[in-house]
Amino acid sequence: MAFRPEVVHGNCSLILFLFIIICLTINETHSTTQCMAGKYDLTPISAWDIWHLKTKISDKPVHFSINPCGSLPNGICSSEHVSICMSDDTNTATVIGNFSETLEPKTFEHKGGFRLDFQGGICPSASGSKRFYNTSINFKCGNSLGSPILLESSACSFFIEWHTTAACDRVDHQAVKENRCYLYDNQNKKHDFTPLVKQFSGYLAVSNGDYDFYINVCRNIQAGKFFVLQLLQ
User: Fold this and answer.
1) 28 — phi, psi (to 5°)?
2) Which pLDDT does position 222 carry in this prediction?
3) What's the confidence (pLDDT) of residue 171?
């Protein structure tokens, strides 16, 4: 997807045309609680109480609600103190990851990043002795906050991958007030704007006047250097 912003000058007004589809996600609670997983700081991720992952398993739509740093808001799942909940098209909710006050990451030095494991409720599909749902989230170093994606699943286990700056040992670019950069449409199709994020500076809008306008997507431009127009906040 590409866009070409243009600034048009009138007598006393400026009109900025952006050829990009934007959906503003509001009405979700923002948190400032610090979240550490060993040496990794997940606080930027914990700013949102719910991260959404929508996909299909065996051709059936499923919706994952994820909060690796805390409990999901009441009413999201069938019980309290839940970090990962899965619901289907009938709105049947299943606890596949209970909240853990102590996050103990398992690191993968040869791959980079780390993994968090969560245990959920009893899995009725398990044979033999009682078995629980298990969800693993592999966090890998990325260029933005990223978003969770489902890699694979079985009857009782789910494997999620998440490329994010929170999994980087050293971040050269500081994400200032970065926002989530993806959304789902009414067909549950994911639209990821991450490739549009400028790590440094911003996009120079086409202008026929005396001013240069810089914009960015999902992340602020450094204050004081450019005229800041922030999208998706």
Assistant:
1) -115, 140
2) 57
3) 58
CB-based burial label for 23 (10 Å; 0-12, 13-18, 19+): exposed
Q: Which residue has the tokens 């499923």?
A: 62
| Residues 83, 155 share a domain | yes
Residues of the domain holding 59: 36-176
The contacts of residue 52 (CB under 8 Å, 6+ apart) are 63, 64, 65, 66, 184
CB atoms within 10 A of CB 174: 10
How much is the pLDDT for 14? Answer: 36
Same domain, yes or no, for 20 and 120? no
- Return d(Cα 228, Cα 216) in angstroms, integer: 8
Nearest to 95 by CA among 74, 116, 119, 62: 119
Total domains present in the chain: 2
30 falls within a domain: no
Q: Pull the structure tokens for residue 90.
A: 């009938």
103 and 198 in a single domain? The answer is no
| Chain centroid to CA 172 | 20
